[in-house]
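[Discussion] Sanity-checking designs against the backbone

I'm trying to build intuition for which residues belong where. Below is a structure token string of 1311 positions. I'd appreciate it if someone posts a full sequence so I can compare it with mine line by line.
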């Protein structure tokens, strides 16, 4: 709010000038809100940038600096600091152009050698630059130029080296803004150099490799393997361009003219016919790269070839006295050598001599092997010298590989017979002289043979029934065995023709003709005998100009002759009126047919029987046995021994046939065999009286026995069967299965497998019944007489065939227990009736429970909580029997095997008088107890304890009426009774059966009361004390901890797991959870309440503490128990405690390598002890009803261990006062971290031992390399021991140290 005076100090440089200010006041003061102006002048002396400061000092204020800046946009060139021109051959010229742009402001630039300009400078004071800048083989132009922003200029650099070196020079570029920048030009000169770095004979074989030869580039030899003429072989070699410039090359193949060994110079001349060719022959070698070339060797003639391949490089600069010229440079020579060996080929065999005779026109096939023992393959062609034989060679042309062979097939054929000889020439490519194959063979005419029978080489006409004009025809074949046609004729040999008749008895379908090659001609021959005899003759086949054959002819010509094989036939025992069949045999003794005829019957016994033949006349064929059947029927009992039948044979011969027999009447016996012993024989002996014993059967389970009626005679008759007392209802038709012999009617045989699908059709009929229902209805009707049993015979009457057996099935069934006796009366024909006794003992009860599982009746009450109200079940009992049955109930509990109170094996029951009297006072029952049975003892197996609960029957005595039902109530009382059976009850009830209305007689006797097996029913029930279902989450109930977790700063470590508690019951559960240290619970709730199906998660853990480890490590026992001291709250070992501790110790085998003093490495195996503590306890759930549920938990603590490798270190002899160092490795093989420290014990006078580090800490499965040093103080031997102590666990391992001092300077060790 007041005026101020200002003091302005002028600029410090001469380029800025401060003019007089325009001040509104006269006294130099500036009023509030006003300003003062100053004019500053700028006068530069160059185009550079200028800076200065104007200082303003107000009255009573601080100094203010005002910056003065005068500049223009500086130039900025895109030219790099180092310009690399590349590579150039010595004495050559390399031109390089560098283009760059001005990215800054307008400027004028000039080039000068480095050192010409010293800063600071004025651009106008610089001398004008030269037209070209020349320095150290470089020439740069232009040397001055002007560039605006964005303009471009090209800098031309020419490099002409005179020596092999990498050359660099520097130049400066000055701008008109008085700035300068230095740049470096570099280039490298090289001399022409190439070398062969590798020569290869193929993909995998390298003859030699000279990559590592830095002085390579001399002459290289390439030797080709020996081959045969015409073989092409290729080798690959790699040529490296050792310079960084491209080289134009061409190859020249030369031959050596002379050699001067003294001067090592070789005179070479171009070779146009060399077998060697290099590809590519001309081209460019790229800078500092490798090029592959192939050398092909293809000799056309055998011989030794040596050539030199010369590599010429073009346009190589060379400085001559006359000046610089470009010439070719001989850069590389390659010596090539090859030996071409002549072919070695032979024929195996060298000659073909065909053994034996061959057929004219037949082709002979032979094979010849061509063996090529040469180094390469050869092409083969064939040529025949004359036309004596015809040849076909397969293949005609082919190639045989080197060292291999090839087999050819040669077909030889001749048109004329005789001995043949010729030669076949075999020509080989690149072989001047062909190989000759000599061929020799012999040929003959055709051969024809006769074949009538392969097994017998004869024409057999067999036996001939001689008659006037008879004839027999046969056939034989003519075989032409060769491949040419043959002319033939057939005739009987002249000496075989009967001279009496003068002509042959044979006629041929063809007597002559021609048979083609390998043809088979069928010839028919007819034989017309003149008289009976044995035929023996020969037929001959003659072949024109060939070989024929002969065949024998045999046969027998006879007249008929017939006899009886058995003149008297004994029919044995036969029966009246029963025809007996038999037969008579006629045998023809030769092979002539004849006729027979039955004429008449004679003899004194012809009136006792009648004979009937199947035919009265017939024909008996030649050489055969003819059978003629007949039937003989006896008219009355008698012995037949004079009964003869006359048979006319042919016209003049009669044969007599005699008949003998014994005729008998009717004979029948009865047998009762077992079902599995029924035999079909018709003969039987009367060993014992028949008896049908059904044995012991069950109620309403039909039993079957068999009555076998055997007719020992051939007389058929009728029979009839009837039961005396326990008759069935014969008016009821039996079901389909009733009456089948051997059928046992049980539940498993009511429906065979073949009738399984028959039930499907009956489903459509609502009134239809199954096979079992039909059987049950049938037996209900049979037992409707209420006698308790019935017996039926199927069939009850029928036809008994002669000499036959009739099997009668006798069925017995009962609906009431007891012992039954009866008689079966059998009447056969007019014989006396036969009485067959019947006996059947029936057991089990007609009562059954109407339950779903009636086979093993069981009443299941299920599970009920303790102290619930009693539960009742109603059970209905059905009586299928004809009598009322009274039941007395008694219940038993089956005790578990673990119950020590129930060790009884047998029950001894004492009964006095009536064991089960009737409790109904309104009914009076007769006393059935005999005097000698008033007191009775009954021994039975012990199955359970008789009990009054928790099951009982109401009422405990009831009567089930005949053919009726009755209901009883079974009560389950879940109050108490938990301790004896652990709440799970398995019981059974016995119902003792008594009969109040039955009296025994001689037909039926029945037991009752304790003498009859009681009716049994199983009862189950459970009184439940519900528990929660405990499941582990993730890691389970086992805690795995490492003792090394406890450190100086970590006194306690807790590992936490989760467990799930599920209420799977239908009750509300209330309980509390407790654990014993070191096991703990993280949820500190007093109690939990779970509704049905509710699930919660509880955290439980294991607390590993330093105090727990001290107690565990302080005990020397392998098994002990832990508890908490109630006063101090610390852990202590006790005899009985909630936590059980087991110590596990084992040895670990660790293998490591130790380096010995002599430098070898030895593998050492160490036994390392490992120790673990296993802690076992329980988490307990205390329910509100006093029940306790235990959950086992387990904790495992692993103690760390360590070992050292090696266990002993020997420093040897060391120079006194010189320190020697070695290393050892300390290893922690366990899965627990640990801490360790080293303690020294031993000599400190003769020497001093040190270790670094002296302590440390390991993670699990870790190791550390320790440095040991030894300084000898005297010549005495020094020993010491380092003890390594691990924590926790205080495991100690020792390292033994040995060293010795010496004043001998030879012991000085150079590090």
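Best answer:
Here's mine. Compare freely.
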């Amino acid at each position: 709010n007041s005026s101020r005076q200002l003091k302005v100090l002028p600029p410090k440089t001469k380029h800025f000038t401060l003019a007089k200010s325009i001040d509104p006041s006269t006294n130099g003061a500036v009023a509030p809100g006003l300003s003062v102006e100053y004019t500053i002048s700028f006068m530069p002396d160059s185009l550079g940038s200028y800076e200065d400061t104007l200082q303003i000092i107000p009255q009573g204020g601080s100094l203010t600096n005002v910056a003065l800046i005068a500049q223009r946009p500086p130039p900025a060139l895109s030219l790099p600091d180092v310009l690399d021109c590349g590579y150039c051959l010595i004495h050559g010229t390399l031109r390089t152009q560098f283009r760059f742009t001005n990215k800054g402001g307008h400027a004028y630039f000039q080039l000068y050698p480095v050192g010409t300009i010293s800063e600071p400078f004025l651009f106008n004071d610089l001398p004008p630059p030269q037209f070209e800048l020349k320095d150290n083989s470089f020439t740069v132009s232009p040397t001055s130029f002007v560039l605006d922003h964005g303009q471009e200029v090209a800098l031309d650099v020419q490099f002409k080296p005179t020596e092999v070196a990498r050359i660099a020079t520097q130049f400066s570029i000055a701008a008109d803004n008085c700035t300068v920048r230095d740049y470096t030009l570099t280039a490298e000169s090289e001399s022409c150099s190439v070398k062969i770095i590798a020569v290869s004979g193929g993909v995998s074989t390298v003859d030699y490799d000279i990559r590592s030869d830095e002085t390579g580039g001399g002459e290289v030899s390439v030797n080709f393997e020996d081959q045969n003429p015409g073989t092409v072989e290729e080798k690959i070699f790699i040529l490296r361009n050792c310079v960084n410039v491209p080289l134009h090359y061409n190859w020249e193949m030369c031959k050596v003219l002379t050699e001067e060994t003294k001067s090592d110079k070789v005179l070479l001349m171009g070779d146009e016919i060399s077998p060697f060719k290099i590809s590519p022959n001309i081209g460019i070698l790229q800078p500092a790269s490798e090029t592959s070339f192939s050398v092909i060797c293809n000799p056309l003639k055998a011989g030794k070839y040596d050539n030199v391949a010369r590599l010429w490089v073009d346009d190589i600069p060379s400085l001559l006295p006359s000046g610089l010229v470009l010439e070719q440079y001989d850069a590389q020579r390659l010596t090539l050598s090859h030996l071409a060996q002549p072919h070695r080929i032979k024929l195996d065999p060298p000659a073909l001599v065909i053994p034996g005779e061959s057929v004219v026109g037949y082709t002979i096939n032979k094979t010849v092997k061509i063996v090529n023992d040469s180094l390469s393959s050869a092409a083969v062609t064939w040529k025949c010298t004359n036309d004596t034989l015809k040849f076909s060679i397969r293949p005609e042309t082919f190639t045989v590989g080197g060292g291999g062979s090839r087999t050819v097939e040669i077909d030889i054929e001749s048109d004329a017979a005789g001995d043949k000889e010729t030669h076949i020439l075999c020509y080989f490519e690149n072989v001047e002289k062909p190989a000759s194959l000599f061929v020799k063979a012999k040929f003959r005419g055709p051969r024809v043979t006769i074949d009538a029978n392969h097994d017998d080489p004869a024409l057999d006409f067999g036996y001939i029934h001689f008659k006037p004009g008879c004839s027999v025809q046969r056939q034989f074949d003519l075989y032409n065995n060769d491949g040419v046609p043959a002319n033939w004729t057939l005739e009987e040999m002249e000496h075989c023709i009967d001279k009496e008749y003068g002509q042959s008895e044979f006629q041929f379908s063809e007597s002559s003709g021609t048979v083609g090659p390998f043809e088979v001609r069928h010839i028919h021959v007819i034989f017309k005998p003149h008289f009976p005899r044995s035929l023996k003759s020969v037929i001959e086949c003659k072949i024109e100009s060939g070989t024929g054959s002969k065949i024998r002819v045999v046969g027998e010509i006879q007249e008929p002759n017939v006899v009886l094989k058995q003149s008297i036939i004994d029919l044995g025992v036969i029966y009246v009126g029963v025809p007996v069949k038999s037969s008579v045999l006629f045998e023809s003794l030769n092979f002539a047919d004849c006729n027979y005829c039955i004429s008449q019957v004679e003899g004194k016994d012809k009136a006792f029987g009648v004979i009937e033949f199947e035919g009265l006349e017939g024909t008996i064929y030649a050489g055969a046995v003819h059978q003629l059947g007949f039937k003989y029927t006896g008219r009355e009992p008698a012995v037949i021994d004079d009964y003869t039948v006359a048979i006319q044979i042919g016209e003049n011969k009669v044969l007599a046939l005699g008949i003998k027999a014994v005729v008998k009447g009717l004979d029948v016996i009865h047998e009762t065999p077992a079902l599995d012993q029924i035999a079909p024989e018709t003969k039987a002996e009367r060993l014992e009286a028949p008896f049908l014993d059904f044995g012991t059967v069950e109620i309403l389970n039909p039993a079957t026995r068999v009555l076998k009626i055997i007719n020992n005679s051939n007389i058929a008759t009728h029979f009839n069967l009837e039961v005396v007392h326990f008759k069935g209802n014969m008016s009821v038709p039996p079901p389909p299965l009733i009456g089948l012999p051997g059928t046992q009617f049980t539940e498993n045989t009511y429906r065979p497998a073949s009738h399984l699908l028959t039930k499907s059709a009956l489903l459509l009929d609502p009134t239809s019944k199954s096979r079992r229902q039909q059987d049950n209805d049938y037996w209900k009707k049979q037992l409707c007489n209420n006698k308790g049993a019935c017996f039926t015979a199927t069939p009850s009457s029928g036809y008994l065939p002669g000499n036959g057996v009739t099997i009668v099935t006798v069925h017995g069934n009962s609906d009431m227990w007891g012992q039954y006796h009866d008689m079966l009366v059998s009447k056969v024909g007019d014989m006396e009736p036969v009485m067959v006794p019947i006996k059947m003992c029936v057991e089990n009860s007609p009562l059954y429970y109407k339950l779903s599982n009636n086979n093993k009746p069981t009443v299941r009450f299920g599970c009920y909580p303790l102290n619930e109200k009693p539960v009742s079940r109603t059970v209905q009992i059905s009586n299928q029997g004809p009598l009322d049955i009274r039941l007395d109930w008694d219940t038993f509990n089956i005790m578990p095997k673990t119950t020590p109170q129930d060790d009884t094996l047998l029950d001894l029951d004492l009964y006095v008088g009536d064991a089960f009297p009737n409790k109904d006072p309104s009914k009076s029952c007769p006393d059935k107890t005999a005097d000698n049975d008033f007191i009775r003892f009954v021994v039975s197996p012990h199955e359970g304890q008789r009990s009054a609960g928790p099951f009982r029957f109401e009422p405990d005595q009831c009567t089930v009426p005949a053919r009726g039902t009755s209901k009883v109530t079974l009560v389950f009382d879940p109050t108490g009774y938990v301790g004896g059976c652990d709440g799970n009850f398995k019981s059974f009830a016995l119902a003792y059966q008594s009969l109040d209305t039955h009296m025994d007689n001689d037909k039926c006797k029945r037991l009752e009361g304790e003498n009859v097996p009681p009716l049994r029913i199983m009862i189950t029930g459970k009184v439940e004390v519900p528990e929660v279902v405990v499941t582990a989450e993730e890691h389970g109930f086992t805690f795995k901890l490492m003792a090394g977790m406890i450190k100086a700063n970590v006194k306690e470590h807790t590992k936490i797991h989760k467990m799930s508690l599920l209420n799977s019951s239908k009750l509300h559960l209330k309980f509390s959870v407790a654990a014993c240290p070191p096991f703990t619970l993280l949820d500190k709730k007093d109690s939990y309440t779970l509704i049905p199906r509710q699930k919660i998660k509880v955290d439980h853990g294991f607390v590993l503490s330093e105090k727990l480890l001290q107690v565990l490590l302080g005990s020397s026992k392998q098994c002990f128990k832990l508890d908490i001291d109630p006063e101090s709250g610390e852990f202590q070992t006790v005899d009985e405690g909630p936590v059980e501790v087991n110590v596990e110790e084992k040895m670990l085998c660790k293998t490591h390598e130790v380096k010995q003093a002599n430098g070898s490495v030895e593998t050492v195996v160490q036994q390392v002890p490992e120790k673990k503590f296993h802690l076992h306890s329980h988490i307990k759930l205390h329910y509100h009803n006093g029940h306790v549920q235990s959950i086992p938990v387990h904790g495992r603590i692993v103690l760390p261990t360590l070992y050292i490798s090696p266990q002993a270190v020997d420093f040897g002899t060391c120079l006194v006062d010189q320190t020697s160092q070695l290393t050892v490795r300390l290893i922690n093989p366990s899965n627990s971290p640990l801490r360790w420290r080293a303690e020294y014990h031993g000599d400190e006078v003769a020497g001093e031992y040190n270790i670094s580090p002296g302590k440390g800490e390991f993670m699990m499965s870790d190791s550390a390399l320790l440095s040991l040093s030894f300084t000898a103080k005297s010549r005495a031997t020094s020993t010491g021991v380092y003890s390594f102590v691990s924590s926790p666990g205080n495991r100690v391992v020792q390292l033994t140290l040995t060293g010795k001092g010496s004043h001998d300077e030879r012991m000085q060790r150079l590090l």
